[in-house]
Design brief:
This protein is α/β, with parallel strands linked by helices. It has helices at 2-8, 10-32, 43-49, 60-65, 79-82, 102-113, 125-131; strands spanning 35-38, 53-56, 72-73, 94-97, 119-122. Strand 4, helix 6 (102-113) and strand 5 (119-122) form a beta-alpha-beta unit.
Length: 138
């Protein structure tokens, strides 16, 4: 009875297995790329325990409005041309952030392409950081 049901609905089972495979292998794909994310509530501990560099790729106006203490600002639009200013940090962990997290993912790809290996993005960006009531500088 079950076998007949599977035979009649093989396409549904195929779709189910495909979805399960995608869900199961997504974390592995992200790690293989070398770019992980860190949550806002975890980042203060990471900042305390590791010698990290915070790279904020928001535009200058957003950065001036609020940013994480000791963050370095290179807007995403200038990251390719200004990469040499942070080359000295290739051996250190880097956490990339922006306002909500979209630009940081793109910036992490640029860093990876330029030889940076220990890259993380701030999941949810500065919006998540401020939502957790974590300190900012202006």
């Amino acid at each position: 009875m079950y076998l007949e049901f599977v035979k009649l609905n093989w396409h549904l089972f195929l779709a189910l297995f495909a979805i399960i495979a995608l869900l199961a292998f997504e974390p592995l794909r992200a790690r293989r790329g070398g770019i992980r994310s860190v949550n806002a509530d975890e980042l203060p501990r990471v900042m305390r325990d590791e010698n990290i560099v915070i790279l904020d790729v928001s535009d200058a106006k957003e950065f001036a409005g609020s940013h994480i203490a000791k963050a370095r600002n290179i807007p995403i639009s200038r990251l390719d041309s200004d990469i040499q200013t942070i080359n000295k940090f290739k051996s250190r962990p880097i956490v990339v952030c922006c306002r909500v997290g979209n630009r940081s993912a793109k910036a992490a790809g640029i860093l990876k392409k330029n030889g940076f290996t220990n890259i993380r993005t701030l999941h949810g960006g500065m919006a998540a950081w401020t939502k957790e009531n974590l300190p900012v500088e202006s």
